[in-house]
Amino acid sequence: MTALRAARAVDCRCALTTHLFAHSVSRHFDYSDEEGFRRAHAELLASLGAERAGALLAELAAESRRRSSLEEDARSRTEAIRAGWRSARPELYTLQPSHLDPRFIHLAELARSERAPGALAPLFSREPCRTEAAAVLLELGVRRLDAVLLVYEMPVLAPKYCEALCAELADFERSGLPSSRPNSMNRHGLLLSELGFSPMLDALLGEYVAPLAAMLFPEAGGGSLDTYRAFTVKYTPDDDPSLALHFDNAEVTLNVCIGERRQAGSAVVEAKAEPGFEGGELLFGGLNSGGPQTPTLALEHSVGRAVLHLGKHMHQALPVSSGTRINLVVWCRSSAIRRCFGCPMCGRKDQLLDPADTE
Q1: pLDDT band at residue 128, thresholds of 50, 70 and 90?
Q2: Interhelix angle 70-84/42-68, nearest 10 degrees
Q3: Could you tell me the pTM of the whole model?
Q4: 202 — phi, psi (to 5°)?
Q5: Contact between residue 120 and residue 111 where contact means Cβ atoms under 8 Å apart
Q6: Which residues 6+ apart lie within 8 Å of 296 measured at CB?
Q7: Partners of residue 227 on adjacent β-strands
């Protein structure tokens, strides 16, 4: 089994000054201080007018302050959660076969086996395949979403586990214990390693996701993943309904829809685990090139199913029009790839921090 562990809160010094997201204008910026930003973006600030420009400057200053204490704050929160959190569902924190979709277990077994190259070959083809291997993959519910883009959808988590996990996270949010926004773009969600989910995530990623990533993304570090950052994100029509086009601080991203599931009276609909929200589709463009892109590939979410893609793939989330969409997102990282090609956010090698010094 490949060993993956939770990443530290800051893995590159560029996190303090690079790629700060401003919700007020839905853009990323580099930001060291207000004076320098005013000089670099004088034209933009003038176009916004005094009120909006002031709001943008205040937002970036607040995000800069938040980032400057990420690791210290993460340690403090983790200690407080360990001391104060008493789970009503401790079985969720250690991965069990019943937590996974049986088809995903079989798929990972194929990826770990000597038959992997032939068994997974249809996923690399740009043309439809009518082979025995293709039929097996169809039965396992895995598919490549586009003939060109390396974006894959598959069943991962059992719907009942998703339901229990959402209930557990809701209980934690009501506990009053400290939590942090999951990243600079999403304002609502939880950092799962801080809550104690590392044993479950270590097993899920090392035993199941890593073998697939090694086969599907060998040139992008899929075979050398060693750390991860896992969090949930929550979208509602009134708060964080969507997410702007972006790429991830990851070599490979796993994005699993965990809820909420559609309710029929007081009973959860079991047959299809239908989502209890509308909208929120995930759109994909091409790989990050630094220029403008128009996403062309759309994916509707289904509870328990995941999309596995390269972190540098540009993507965005369309607005949720009703209900609440909750996803579990895991940024899987490769220290080996970063030592060769640099940080995906700034492109530099000399800014990287030792990944062994985790939270």
Answers
A1: confident
A2: 40
A3: 0.93
A4: -55, -45
A5: yes
A6: 283, 284, 285
A7: 5, 333
